[in-house]
């Protein structure tokens, strides 16, 4: 499996707090079947003021530690970007980290607020499309507005967009409503990529087996494989 969304880097956001925790999370990830992970620390102005440049030293230290610990996990660096107005200024300045490319366009992991879909989101998504960027919406099944009415996701489908659902949602890790919403979105075809969104060892480790077993019940082996291997590989290749 290729995990396109996880918070493995230590001490840069609300993910791993130390290099030792990062390494133990990496060990678990490998045991759970993950061979490649994209570290996606939060990019949220005023809360997590990260940049690719500021993260590079930590990322390099982490990659060296993986080799030293003999953990066979390939890692890359990108980011989970919060939907804010700052995107409009940051994109032309090349300050926004991309996951990779798909069909000739950059792919951006974009996080909505958990409470709602902000007014103007549709316009921002189309603005990104016009500039050669495909937004990949992170964990829409945990957005309260979508949980209350799954059809609200239609507001996000006016242009080119991908949806990344969290494996743990299918295991019930985020509650019954997130579980039900994840299934509903998957059945409607709004599931392109499955990721762990792992943050730590205690509450949100990079577990996959239970959730993926549940996913396969609803969408089958072929679509599940596409979401954890084929499409992620196409994006990062």
From TrEMBL:
Gene Ontology MF annotations: manganese ion binding; protein tyrosine phosphatase activity
Which region is the signal sequence? none
Q: Which UniProt keywords apply?
A: Hydrolase
Q: Which domain of life is it from?
A: Bacteria
Database matches in SUPFAM superfamilies: PHP domain-like
The EC number(s) attached to this protein equal 3.1.3.48
Q: What class of enzyme is it?
A: hydrolase
Q: What is the catalytic activity of this protein? A: O-phospho-L-tyrosyl-[protein] + H2O = L-tyrosyl-[protein] + phosphate
> Does the UniProt entry include the keyword Hydrolase?
yes
Pfam families recorded for this chain? CpsB_CapC
What family is it from? Answer: Belongs to the metallo-dependent hydrolases superfamily. CpsB/CapC family.
This protein's name: protein-tyrosine-phosphatase
The record lists the lineage as: Bacteria, Pseudomonadati, Pseudomonadota, Gammaproteobacteria, Alteromonadales
């Amino acid at each position: 499996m290729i995990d396109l969304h996880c918070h493995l880097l230590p001490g840069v956001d609300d993910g791993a707090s130390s290099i030792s925790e990062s390494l133990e999370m990496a060990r678990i990830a490998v045991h759970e079947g993950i061979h490649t992970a994209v570290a996606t620390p939060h990019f949220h102005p005023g809360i997590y003021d990260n940049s690719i440049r500021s993260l590079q030293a930590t990322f390099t230290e982490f990659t060296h530690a993986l080799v030293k610990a003999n953990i066979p996990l390939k890692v890359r660096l990108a980011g989970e970007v919060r939907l804010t107005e700052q995107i409009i200024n940051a994109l032309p300045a090349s300050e926004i980290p991309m996951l990779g490319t798909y069909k000739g366009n950059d792919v951006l992991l974009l996080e909505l607020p958990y409470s709602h879909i902000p007014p103007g989101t549709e316009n921002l998504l189309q603005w990104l499309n016009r500039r050669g960027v495909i937004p990949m919406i992170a964990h829409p099944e945990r957005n309260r507005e979508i949980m209350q009415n799954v059809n609200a996701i239609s507001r996000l489908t006016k242009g080119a967009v991908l949806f990344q659902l969290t494996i743990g949602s299918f295991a019930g890790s985020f509650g019954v409503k997130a579980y039900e919403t994840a299934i509903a979105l998957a059945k409607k075809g709004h599931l392109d990529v499955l990721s762990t969104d792992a943050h730590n060892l205690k509450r949100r480790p990079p577990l996959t087996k239970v959730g993926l077993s549940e996913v396969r019940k609803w969408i089958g082996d072929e679509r599940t494989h596409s979401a954890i291997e084929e499409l992620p590989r196409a994006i990062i290749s």
